Structure formats: structure tokens, C-alpha cells
């Protein structure tokens, strides 16, 4: 890894230089506290929202879109459809979202590679951006507040300049798109970077103990708390739609009006939906709402940990801010702990 400095005033010039080679997407503020990733060509480099904390939809939307056509079919059979997406650069991914992309990569691109996901993901270069947490961030508890990899280039905001880390060949390619803008790092800059990391570590207001959480959940699968939470939860799936690691989807066929051809589509879904697990004969594996609620939380902090050694929740706080019922994931696990007398309270400062 190499480090450089980029003056804050030179960031738009760098992004525009990247846009000359690849389609750049940046975080922008559409209205107060509402952020989305948007093409630089539409928003302009001056619109980049360096102060944002979480976008409405996570960056997985670029690789695993809310809806996509996988095949076209007619009487002769199926024809695979290829994603029509030019090579891109995603700028401004926070550490939690980079970890989120890594989880989705594991699902779609490693053990059983997904064709359309891989086609999109392989063409994307990622530029990370440091952030300061708010009252809904608990990535520190999940171990996702920092990244040692998962990015091609990463920027830490030192105020008048950015401390830039370049890790991959793609990162060096982006560096050389505007090489004259990047300066050597001094000892003073390194000290400022370390001071920023220390300040950031102490800025987290929300935390929850997770070291023994899989074991607690293992012995409390029949906890009455899940039924209580189900009384509040609408099972609307909002938390799943904004989650950077949820990968549930549904498949549906759409026929053209002539009835001779159609498309097979993949759309985002949620394990909270009543018909998500519907089988033949109208059989449901989780007909009870409490079972569906429990299943989602267990997948995040129990099932994924047992399978892959880490939670699939990255602590971004999107589900907290998006839930119309006001359900807080941290409070959910706190209630489960209390129910089994295991302690380990959440902390809010």
C-alpha cells in the first residue's frame, strides 16, 4: 500500500479525470439528510456529499439491482441476458459498506458464482471514504469500522486535504488518471491521520456486545421476545431493502401481450414477507410472524457467524433509520439478552 495527499480543492478535478475513463458514481444529497449514489455526469463533481453517513440504498444495488432480467424466453428456449453496464468507479464507500460489498461478494461471486453479479462486480473499482459516526452507527461493535483491504483507493478527510491510501493495481490506475494532483505524505500528515482515527474511535455513541451473541442465540431460540417484537414489526421488509448484505430475491416470469415470449426476472425480496417461503399446497415454513422476525435476526448474528466466522450485519444503521415501526436492531438483541438473564447491555452516549 502507498499513501499520498490530495488537496480538498483538487477532489473535483480528480473525479472529473476519472470520469474521462470510467463512469463515476458519487454520494449526493437529494434533500435534507437524504443521500443516494448518483452518476457524476448528472450531479457534477461539486455535488459530492463528503459529509454523508448512509445512502438510502446501499452500493450493492449496482451489482445486485432491485430488479433485473436474467433471461428472455420464447418457444425455442431461454436466452441469457448480459448486464449493460459500463466500467464504473464508486466513490465514497464507508468502511461498513465496503464490508457489506464483501459479504454480498461471498454470496454471489465465490462458492457458486452468479453470472450477472460477476459481470457487474468485475467492472467496478471502489474508492472508500472515511466518516464520523452518528447515534445510529454501531459498526465498531461489528468490527467493520475500519478496513485493511476491500478497496482500491481510500480517502481520509483531514480537513484541507485527504490522506489517500492506494492498495491495488486499479487504485494506481486511478491515481495516474490525475497523478499531478497527488503529493507526498509528510510526518505531520501521518500524525494528523492517526489523530483522526483516535478521535473517530471515541466518537461512537452506540454499541452492543457481540462476542458471545451467537452462543446466547443458540440457547434462546424459543425466547418469547421474538413474539413480542412481532407485535410491533409490520414485516414490511424495509430493513431488508436498505440492508447492504441482504441477498433474498424472488424469481418471476413476465409474458409479453402476444403470449409467445417473455422475460424471467430477479427482484429483491425479504425473508420477512409472508409468501417468501411459500411452497406447494400453500405450505409455509415460517407462517408465524414471530418466526420470520427471528429468522432475519438469527441469520445476521448466528447463522452467518457459524457458517463464515463473522456477522453479516455491518452496523451501518440503515435498518434503524428506515424502520417505520421504530425497531432498533441493537435494542432487539438487548431484549433477548435480558430475557435469558445474560446481561451485556447496549450502550448509548
Automatic annotation (TrEMBL):
Residue intervals passing through the bilayer: none
Is Metal-binding given among the entry's keywords?
yes
Question: For this protein, what is any one GO molecular function term?
Answer: metal ion binding
Q: Which UniProt keywords apply?
A: Iron, Iron-sulfur, Metal-binding
Q: Does the keyword NADP apply?
A: no
Tell me which residues make up the 4Fe-4S ferredoxin-type domain: 224-254, 301-335
In terms of SUPFAM superfamilies, this protein maps to: alpha-helical ferredoxin
Q: What is this protein called?
A: 4Fe-4S ferredoxin, iron-sulfur binding domain protein
Amino acid at each position: 500500500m502507498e499513501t499520498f495527499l490530495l488537496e480538498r480543492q483538487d477532489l473535483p478535478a480528480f473525479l472529473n479525470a476519472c470520469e474521462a475513463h470510467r463512469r463515476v458514481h458519487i454520494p449526493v444529497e437529494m434533500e435534507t439528510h437524504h443521500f443516494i449514489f448518483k452518476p457524476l455526469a448528472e450531479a457534477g463533481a461539486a455535488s459530492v456529499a463528503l459529509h454523508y453517513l448512509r445512502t438510502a440504498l446501499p452500493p450493492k444495488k449496482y451489482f445486485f439491482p432491485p430488479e433485473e432480467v436474467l433471461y428472455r424466453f420464447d418457444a425455442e428456449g431461454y436466452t441469457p441476458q448480459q448486464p449493460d453496464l459500463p466500467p464504473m468507479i464508486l466513490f465514497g464507500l464507508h468502511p461498513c459498506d465496503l464490508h457489506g460489498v464483501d459479504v454480498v461478494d461471498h454470496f454471489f461471486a465465490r462458492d457458486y458464482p452468479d453470472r450477472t453479479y460477476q459481470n457487474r462486480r468485475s467492472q467496478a473499482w471502489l474508492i472508500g471514504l472515511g466518516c464520523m459516526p452518528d447515534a445510529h452507527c454501531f459498526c465498531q461493535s461489528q468490527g467493520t469500522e475500519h478496513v485493511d483491504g476491500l478497496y482500491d483507493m481510500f480517502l481520509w478527510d483531514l480537513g484541507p486535504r485527504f490522506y489517500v491510501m492506494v492498495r491495488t493495481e486499479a487504485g494506481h490506475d486511478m491515481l495516474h488518471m490525475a497523478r499531478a494532483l497527488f503529493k507526498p505524505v509528510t510526518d505531520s500528515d501521518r500524525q494528523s491521520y492517526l489523530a483522526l482515527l483516535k478521535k473517530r474511535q471515541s466518537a461512537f455513541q452506540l454499541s452492543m456486545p457481540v462476542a458471545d451473541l451467537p452462543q446466547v442465540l443458540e440457547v434462546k431460540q424459543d425466547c418469547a421476545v421474538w413474539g413480542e417484537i412481532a407485535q410491533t414489526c409490520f414485516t414490511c421488509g424495509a430493513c431488508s431493502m436498505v440492508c447492504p448484505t441482504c441477498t433474498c430475491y424472488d424469481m418471476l416470469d413476465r409474458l409479453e401481450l402476444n403470449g409467445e415470449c417473455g422475460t424471467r426476472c430477479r427482484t429483491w425480496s425479504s425473508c420477512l414477507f409472508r409468501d417468501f417461503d411459500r411452497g406447494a399446497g400453500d405450505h409455509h415454513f415460517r407462517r408465524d410472524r414471530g418466526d420470520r422476525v427471528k429468522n432475519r435476526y438469527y441469520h445476521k448474528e448466528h447463522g452467518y457467524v457459524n457458517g463464515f466466522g463473522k456477522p453479516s450485519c455491518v452496523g451501518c444503521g440503515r435498518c434503524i433509520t428506515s424502520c417505520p415501526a421504530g425497531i432498533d436492531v441493537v435494542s432487539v438483541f438487548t431484549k433477548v439478552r435480558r430475557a435469558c438473564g445474560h446481561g451485556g447491555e447496549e450502550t448509548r452516549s
